């Protein structure tokens, strides 16, 4: 059993912390939201009201926060509080630059550090079936692995500091592009008089097969669990998809990579969000594509 501090108990962090409790660890939790703290307390997390209180004495600190600026601010505070040798893991999705910056902060304080963003959404967080993509030293990865295994099913060491975030951003650029591709195909099929089921049956067994089609189909019917069957409740919100696509474009610009489809996907999601759809599931973009 380890003593773990979990910072950021929102839609993802809450169930992830609960799975660490289920695995037998002692978990103290901190969040700025009283609602998130109260929900975490119901799952066995020990809720505390300050960051310092949460991390004092903890062997491992895990952060699951909205953006890079939040992670940098929290890890800067941690540097003055945690003991040397503490393992710090950031599971948020953030830009590669912030990820590398917080590795530097932790390592200067004598801590082991890992960036370990996740894929699998809130369902995967609750079921303990997330995919973790980790960046950091072999030592930090080995130390973190048993704890990541309590929250996920597939754990991949992608390389040095920041490599987990790089993999996450590339993966989600594929996801944004593929959801638009699948949505365009269904919108075209509708105009051609094809039923949703007929197109699904063909494409899911053909070269058009992909996760956006077979696990997250953007029209109701073929995949009963997809948000299209539940009024496009997220799932994975448009605002988060846009955030990840913008991260991919920032880093592509910075390193001189050419990503024309990633850029187009970011623009389409930006337009869709500006129409007031930021809180809906990202597969709802089919509605805008039908109109266009
Ligand atoms: P969320 O908004 O539900 O939770 C974030 C939590 O962090 C909130 O409860 C907020 O109060 C808390 N918080 C913010 N600043 C804080 C601070 N300084 N100290 C303590 N708590 C603070 O977001 P989420 O959906 O849980 O996402 C968290 C991260 O996971 C994001 O980076 C997101 O991109 C990533 N992610 C989300 C999903 C998803 O499906 N929701 C999937 C994969 C990755």
How would you portray this structure in words?
About 50% of the residues lie in helices and about 15% in strands. α1 (about 15-20) links the parallel β1 and β2 (about 25-30). It has about 290 residues and is of the alpha/beta class. The mean pLDDT is about 95. The protein has two domains: about 5-160, NAD(P)-binding Rossmann-like Domain (Rossmann fold, 3-Layer(aba) Sandwich); about 165-290, Orthogonal Bundle (N-(1-d-carboxylethyl)-l-norvaline Dehydrogenase, domain 2), CATH 1.10.1040.10. The protein contains 13 helices and nine strands. α1 (about 15-20) runs parallel beside α6. Strands 1, 2, 3, 4, 5, 6, 7, 8 and 9 form a nine-stranded mixed β-sheet that branches. The chain is globular, with a radius of gyration of 20 Å. Nicotinamide-adenine-dinucleotide binds next to α4 and α6.
What is this structure's SSE topology?
Blueprint: E1 3-7, H1 13-22, E2 26-30, H2 34-41, E3 46-47, H3 51-55, E4 60-63, H4 68-79, E5 87-90, H5 96-108, E6 112-115, E7 118-119, H6 121-127, E8 130-136, H7 138-149, E9 152-159, H8 163-191, H9 196-203, H10 211-214, H11 238-255, H12 260-277, H13 285-291
Parallel strand pairs: 1-2, 1-4, 2-3, 4-5, 5-6, 8-9
Antiparallel strand pairs: 6-8, 7-8
């Amino acid at each position: 059993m380890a003593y773990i501090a979990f910072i950021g108990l929102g839609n993802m962090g809450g169930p992830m912390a609960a799975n660490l409790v289920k695995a037998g660890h002692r978990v103290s939790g901190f969040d700025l939201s009283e609602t998130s703290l109260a929900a975490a307390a119901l799952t066995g997390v020990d809720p505390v009201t300050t960051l310092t209180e949460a991390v004092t004495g903890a062997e491992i600190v895990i952060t699951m926060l909205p953006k890079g600026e939040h992670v940098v601010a929290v890890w800067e505070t941690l540097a003055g509080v945690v003991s040397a040798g503490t393992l710090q893991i950031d599971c948020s999705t953030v830009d590669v630059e912030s990820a590398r910056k917080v590795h530097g902060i932790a390592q200067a304080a004598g801590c082991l550090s890992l960036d370990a963003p996740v894929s699998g959404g809130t369902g995967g967080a609750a079921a303990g079936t997330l995919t973790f993509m980790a960046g950091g030293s072999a030592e930090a990865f080995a130390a973190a692995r048993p704890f990541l295994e309590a929250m996920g099913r597939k754990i991949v060491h992608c390389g040095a500091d920041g490599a987990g975030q790089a993999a996450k951003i590339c993966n989600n650029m594929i996801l944004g592009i593929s959801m638009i591709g699948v949505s365009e195909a269904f919108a075209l099929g509708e105009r051609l008089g094809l039923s949703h089921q007929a197109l699904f049956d063909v494409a899911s067994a053909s070269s058009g097969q992909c996760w956006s089609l077979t696990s997250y189909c953007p029209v109701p019917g073929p995949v009963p669990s997809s948000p299209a069957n539940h009024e496009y409740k997220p799932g994975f919100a448009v605002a988060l998809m846009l955030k990840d696509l913008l991260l991919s474009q920032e880093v592509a610009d910075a390193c001189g990579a050419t990503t024309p489809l990633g850029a187009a996907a970011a623009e389409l999601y930006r337009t869709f969000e500006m129409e007031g759809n930021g809180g809906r599931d990202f597969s709802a973009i089919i509605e805008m594509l039908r109109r266009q």
